[in-house]
Amino acid sequence: MSAGKKHARSEGEEQTARLTKKTKTDEIPDGPNDTEPSSLKAEKKKKKDKKDKKDKKEKKDKKQKKEKSEEEPEEQQNGDSAEAESEPKPEKKSKKDKKKSKSSEESTPNPTDQNGVFNGTTPAANGAAQRNGAAYSYQQTSTLDAVSEAEVQEFLKKQEIAVFDPSGSKYRPVMQFSHLPTSTLLSKKPFASFSAPTPIQAASWPFALAGRDVIGIAETGSGKTMAFSLPCIESLASSPKPTHEKYDRTAYARAVVVSPTRELAMQTHAAMSSLAALVGLSAVCLYGGASKDDQRALLRKNNGADIIVATPGRLKDFLSEGAVSLSDVMFAVLDEADRMLDKGFEDDIKLILGSCPPREKRLTLMFTATWPVSVQGLAEGFMIDPVKVTIGNRTRAGGDENGVGNGSVELQANLRIEQKVEVVDPRGKEQRLLELLREAQKGSAKNDRILVFCLYKKEAVRVEQNLERRGIRVASIHGDLRQDQRTRSLEAFKAGTTTVLVATDVAARGLDIPEVKLVINVTFPLTIEDYVHRIGRTGRAGKKGKAITLFTEHDKSHSGSLVNILKGANQPVPEELLKFGTTVKKKAHDSYGAFFKDVDMSKKATKITFD
Ligand SMILES: Nc1ncnc2c1ncn2[C@@H]1O[C@H](COP(=O)(O)OP(=O)(O)OP(=O)(O)O)[C@@H](O)[C@H]1O
Fold first, then answer.
1. From CA 416, how far away is CA 418, in angstroms rounded?
2. pTM above threshold 0.90
3. What's the DSSP call for residue 73?
4. Residues 127-154: pLDDT tens digits?
5. Ligand 1 closest atom vs CA 219
6. Which atom of ligand 1 is nearest to the CA of 514?
């Protein structure tokens, strides 16, 4: 509780006490409580009974909610769910971070509490923003200055880039690596092997390098990891490291990246740590389901870590025991931001960002492929005048003819993925899956990698066993497996020793597995956003991909939003799917809130119309 709140409450309590006293003095003579008239006693008892009843009801509701969430499909339980069962998660914060969390973090955005550079009116076009001691001195290079405005506009249009900047600053996109100021990082791999920045990198790098908060929304597989990794590591490398007492064994991270699943945290860590090493920085990955002692040892070995990539539950554990402090953080990233901000993770994120310096003093970046309305307001409360960079034809919604959108975002699937929807009888799904796999792995395609998504953990187990019995090389990844089994399955699939991976939505977001040729949805996910993420495991880094979805009458509540996605990506819409209706329902879940996207049904596909 903040000091302010505590004060307010004690004042309120005092007032109640004063009122009670007044009533007492008005009605009865002074005296001890047991001399109170029976009417007052009865009134008190009534109040107490009412309170007890309320407490009991709250307890019961809490219990029911907990039981219900244990029955929920896998998607809502990923992240650190296994960890939650085995490791207590004290809510307590370390002393060091307690002070920090009293910052403005959880307050609603207030334009008057922002610092000079980011007050919504001052363009930050010359960089030099100061945040937590770090200077962000991005200056547009003369090479980029020399490019004609027409060429820049052509690029923005072609790549369907829209930038919405509330402070009105204008940075040109870095269309080539040579448009960026030279740096050690850029001269090395992987940048040296990429031919050009991807659109999300081109448009967001200048802002993040200049010290602006950024929300980056771009299709799956479009290079968002590097979009936040490069400015993060560049800014860390050019800022002095704060010093701490010699005997202090706390690991003070200067950047924190939070990911919704362990596998994604590990993958992001692998990418960032190799970049970080190029400039003498270190990164540690903290995730549930693995030994805390080992992770603690890693922190000690590196004498802390400049960058921590983590899943929320494990990070909270380390924070509460004081092994990690985020009080030096100058760069905070929420990867798969909409997932991190929905009801399942909201409290964890508040606690984690509340342990960092206040938003005025750090940079906050959020990247995602889907950006539902339900989390947008919440996101901006953690940031200072974020620049919103969106890629895709959805970006011009409500914007002007120059491609400058108004910040609203439509849900869109990766356009390089061929999407097919088959409406089937629910009882025939697994037989159809088998036929599809055999068809897809015929002849020379026998080693093609295929990702099969189920909704429930038990369903994934059953499907895997069925496929195994039919002689298919298959592994699985879901929350009922130990972390080492999950990791082994993923590695076997990446290496190609297993060609079919059956997964729940723990594998839906962010995983970058090269050469996944086909994604098959055996059961439709909980949300249309998850559908977009699932199919996004194919068609990555400019490649083509294919997704087949088995749709049954049980999924009919998703038909409208699926039709919209198919239309938006110029994909065929089967007649049988249209029969389920085209209304998009807005749904709010008891525990997870309104995670549905508001889709404008009056909108037609950009390139194709269906009659
Ligand atoms: N500039 C670039 N040129 C070519 N390839 C790139 C470039 N930047 C990143 N990549 C590659 O693109 C692939 C996909 O990138 P990444 O995993 O960051 O996608 P993403 O946008 O985060 O996807 P998702 O939304 O699924 O999380 C990676 O293999 C990465 O190495």
1. 6
2. no
3. -
4. 446 676 666 779 899 999 999 999 999 9
5. 25
6. 29
